[in-house]
Amino acid sequence: xxxxxxxxxxxxxxxxxxxxxxxxxxxxxxxxxxxxxxxxxxxxxxxxxxxxxxxxxxxxxxxxxxxxxxxxxxxxxxxxxxxxxxxxxxxxxxxxxxxxxxxxxxxxxxxxxxxxxxxxxxxxxxxxxxxxxxxxxxxxxxxxxxxxxxxxxxxxxxxxxxxxxxxxxxxxxxxxxxxxxxxxxxxxxxxxxxxxxxxxxxxxxxxxxxxxxxxxxxxxxxxxxxxxxxxxxxxxxxxxxxxxxxxxxxxxxxxxxxxxxxxxxxxxxxxxxxxxxxxxxxxx
Amino acid sequence: xxxxxxxxxxxxxxxxxxxxxxxxxxxxxxxxxxxxxxxxxxxxxxxxxxxxxxxxxxxxxxxxxxxxxxxxxxxxxxxxxxxxxxxxxxxxxxxxxxxxxxxxxxxxxxxxxxxxxxxxxxxxxxxxxxxxxxxxxxxxxxxxxxxxxxxxxxxxxxxxxxxxxxxxxxxxxxxxxxxxxxxxxxxxxxxxxxxxxxxxxxxxxxxxxxxxxxxxxxxxxxxxxxxxxxxxxxxxxxxxxxxxxxxxxxxxxxxxxxxxxxxxxxxxxxxxxxxxxxxxxxxx
Lengths: 284, 284
Known about the structure:
Chain A is α+β, with helices and mostly antiparallel strands.
């Protein structure tokens, strides 16, 4: 850790020693908190149910959602040591040499969440909603990414706005949410573009992304708006208005948005232009 | 999720469906944030370096710290799937039957942090400090606990105040920090006791705990103050004042403290006594 890492107002994240995992100074955390509040405020007036999820999630929920089938290589599975202490005493010396000391590890009931929204669908299992259900949820997520260029983190925080409703409601809602967030990013002087993205499901689902420069000229998606059609309604058995429930989510990558702001306006938030700071607060 | 989970000011955590993992409504998160700020404010005037760590940490750091030797059964190890998609297509159908479909999983370079402070010592490796180094760090931690009574979580947030200095400084500092936090808890109308705890190391290290009722009459430690003697100075090779560095940490279990407040004052923070709310803010 360099001396510049002291809480001197520099928000630049610090390397942790492992790829795709960063440490965050206080000034960075203040940006994250403002983005979190500002993002929820773009949906002000909507009756959002706000929930914070921990950084582990039921493996069964992720299996049921179909994520395991599509992206098995991205999941972080939580294993634990199921042996007794005596056996451990024999295994432990193997750790230093990299030998097969983890032989007694067992897969647990938990994985690291690849996205924040999955527990929402699980909690709706068996319900028949008579009105749209709207959520704002957040979790520290994990993906076992193969590369670690700027913005490509293995551990990152995701805030998701989620709608469970009819198809028509979900599609309109996603468009409104993305438009409002794009307008907010423009007010933050971020060079934002809205692009269709491949949803790779071969069904009525679709995906759109907001992309901004996150590190110099490197442009990455920082928000994705997905319409899942009836995928989660079928997987988790919930209905809306007497049909299989449809769902949509708008997912914001909090670190990427913060990195984009740092890249655009410099490492010290206190020195950012006043209109940017005012737009970042974005609260009533 | 019951209807009472809407953001109606009820801070009671919700069951997630897996033991020791809870979901948190917005009112609970506001308490967590106030505890976080208030805890750091008990050390106001100290030149704390504030860092937020993600919910994964280098496995090598945890091995080097000696945690793996002492508590192998508590660690959550992150594994990932290292096979190719073709093989996955053969393995996946086994998942539903609970068979050995995870055969191609490999242990990764990451574990879930059993406590927040370990990266601090790693970042000091090779340093020779000429003055005490003080930190306030936070991480979502994980322990593969065998039971899940109230307050016994597998995933929980820990805020730690950390001192790396001489023995004399560390011991005095720990006492001051615990005294200040105990006084703050008393102002929050929590029935707090300070007790010596077993540090189980057979060396100059020692541990003290602040305990409060967290669920009805169930008393649990919510803060622990540990003096590590030279354990981490030796393990991570850092010096202070030309001796092997000593360290101490004061660790606050944020969920447990919040649960204690809910147990003492009721599920709706807006209805708590005014002196408790004033003490909770605890800021200048």
